[in-house]
Write a structure and sequence with these properties.
Blueprint lengths: L3 H25 L6 H19 L4 H14 L10 H25 L1
Length: 107
Amino acid sequence: MDSLVTRGIVFIIGEVLALFVFWFVTKAFKKKLTISGVLRGVLERLFLFITLAAELTPAMAIFGALKIATRLSDDKEDKISNDYFLVGNLVSILLVIGYYLIPKYYF
């Protein structure tokens, strides 16, 4: 039963759990969890999830290029550590892969 509804439910439950995961990540790096950061993360993971579900994997390369381009800013006030950026992105990608695989193999 690999339906759109099942995938949607897995995504929503996963995003609720992701909120707790990223709360711990932000505490580990002594950062603040902001509403804009949470919404941006949900949107990014939704994009990645849709590209995986629709088997549009080349779009993931576009996503990676956009992520790199946003890091090239010279704005010193919005700088975050490279470790924090890397960990956050890896956690997001692992979550999305989980969102994709759970309905595929368990439902």
